[in-house]
Design goal:
The protein is of the alpha/beta class. Helices cover 41% and strands 18% of the residues.
């Protein structure tokens, strides 16, 4: 079965502020490299192009204002992105995408999707609270873009089976749930794993990821699994992971 890579970006800006920020010039080189490698962007709405075995899903979290420039550059190259926005951020923080920018990005051909009403972990919400907040955010996005929302990404990537089942039961049109679980995806997967893009991601690492290099994914998976174990030990010892 054919596989594809899902990349997770956050802020696209210079200078960078933390490891998840990718400088704009580096991002542009990465997008140009996709064209050089003959890799196109995957559309969840249109489905997997089975005649094309080199596709990548480009995703962006939080709705940072800098994503607008990234969206414009991608559109100039014929690339499609998925921008997971937080409703309260966009409405109340000028550093994030405005409703006008969200509408323009949709007109460019990008997909605006759900990252939540706020940035609180979905695993800490009741089923009804989760559905109410996601439903409200979905309606808000669809009112701007005039398109049905079919995907969401949990803040912090924290999902469990209860959250997955609640969303699929209560919002069945939201088929695809993106996590921060590291790994390759098959075209019929509904829960999407990622490779995070960092300030330290080199062009070689980027190439290995989008070309589905097995050794690269084994290495990334080992790092991810190690961090999961360390987090569990930390929590068992009484530590608390900060909710951003």
């Amino acid at each position: 079965m054919k596989s594809y890579t899902c990349l997770m970006y956050h802020e696209i800006a210079t200078p960078t502020k933390n490891k998840y920020y990718v400088p704009l010039d580096v991002f542009k080189r990465q997008m140009a490299l996709l064209g050089e490698l003959g890799i196109s962007t995957l559309s969840l709405e249109e489905g997997w192009n089975k005649s094309d075995d080199r596709q990548v899903l480009l995703t962006f979290d939080d709705g940072h204002g800098s994503n607008f420039e990234a969206a414009r550059f991608m559109a100039s190259l014929g690339l499609k992105g998925y921008f997971y926005v937080v409703k309260d951020f966009s409405l109340h923080n000028p550093d994030y995408l405005s409703e006008d920018e969200i509408g323009k990005m949709a007109e460019m051909g990008h997909t605006i999707a759900i990252h939540g009403k706020n940035h609180k972990w979905w695993t800490r919400k009741s089923d009804q609270q989760l559905l109410d907040e996601l439903g409200e955010t979905k309606e808000w996005i669809e009112g701007i873009t005039k398109r049905m929302v079919i995907t969401c990404a949990a803040p912090g990537g924290f999902v469990d089976q209860r959250v997955i089942d609640t969303i699929h039961r209560g919002l069945p049109e939201v088929e695809y749930i993106r996590t921060v679980e590291v790994g390759l995806n098959h075209y019929d997967d509904k829960v999407i794993r990622i490779i995070p893009m960092h300030t330290t991601t080199t062009l070689d690492m980027f190439k290995w990821g989008v070309c589905c290099n097995p050794a690269f994914y084994a290495y990334q998976r080992a790092i991810y699994d190690s961090k999961k174990v360390l987090k569990r030990i930390y929590c068992l010892l009484g530590g608390e992971i900060k909710e951003e």
